[in-house]
Amino acid sequence: MNSLEKKQLLGLDLNQMEEYLLCLEEPRFRGRQVYKWIYQKECSSFYEMSDLPRSLRKKLDEKARVSIPRVLKQRVGKDGSRKFLMELDDKKKIECVLLPQSRDRKSSYTLCLSTQVGCPIACNFCATGQSGFQRNLKAFEIIGQYLGSKKELNKRLKSSQAELISNIVYMGMGEPLLNYDEVIRSVHMLNDPRGINLGQRRITISTSGEAAGIKKLAQENIQLTLAISLHACDNTLRDQLIPLNRKYPLEVLFPAVEDYIAITGRRVTFEYLLLDEVNMSRNDAHKMIKLLKPLLANVNLIPYNEIEGLPFKKPETAKIWQFYQWLQDGGLNVSIREERGSDINAACGQLRSDYRR
Ligand code: SAH
Ligand code: SF4
Fold first, then answer.
1. pLDDT-based confidence at 356, cuts 50/70/90?
2. What is the CATH classification number for the domain harbouring 19?
3. Predicted TM-score of the model (pTM)
4. Torsion on CA atoms 46, 49, 50, 54, rounded to nearest 10
């Protein structure tokens, strides 16, 4: 049997895994064992599943597969961040990034996951947006990024450190809410206490403003953090930066966010890119205060990571602090995102599928 014709076990939930083992005329508990091997031990070779009988290992190897994406390249930054280039079954390539939570290398990591190959929104400041859109990722390919990165960490670090991917952010390539069903499936798989067991509150989904997806998400009863990429507080500028704003302008997006807050009771984060000479005037600060003050919200300022070939510039530090101060004086709960991974092009907005660096 050609390996791609084999049954893909990555992406099955516990129930589906048990059903599959029952189909192979094996007892249900074998499903639980395989499930643990895959999701808790990042194991993709049936022969290594040492508590299964040899005959079952052989049978599984003949009929099934676990396609954790292959890591083609790995770059390690000065601050300990790691960027992985991974290859999917159809040879398409994606990037995901591990970011240490502090400069102390022993700290735990935040993993930044991709949800699409490329991105259809095509924001004019973002490297991913320049590479066009190829396809949505399946839940197993999203989870595969977690398992693939964890496997690499295990190889390279002592086991006491290797355990620690403590937070997940859906902020890699793509617009997560345009791949809604598979993203939500992947969240449930990350969260499953019998598998990966990562708390919902440790998961953040970032969206460029897909209002229809925000409405659906409000109904899911998942305790994750929603982050909205705002970047401009009037439609004229936002239309230019994020083309999706023409479909969901601020007067459509904001009621959806307000409903989300009312339904979930959760604090939302607004991400605001700092683009020199574009969106950082005193007037921009006033507009933001007016728009966000009434909401239960955090504001996270992201100094722009410059992309070769794109016209946008990162502002000087003094300008960043000035803008921060205006917002703080206006009563917003604001923070500045610490830059990580920029020396290996692993920072926000720097991921691509056409890997040439
Ligand atoms: N598509 C989603 C999630 C991925 S992008 C979204 O847009 O929200 C994650 C964050 O990185 C977004 O806030 C995005 O606007 C920001 N970003 C994109 N390009 C960037 C760049 N060059 N420098 C800094 N942040 C960038
Ligand atoms: Fe897509 Fe987000 Fe990049 Fe915009 S910023 S092109 S929505 S990945």
1. very low
2. 1.10.150.530
3. 0.94
4. -30
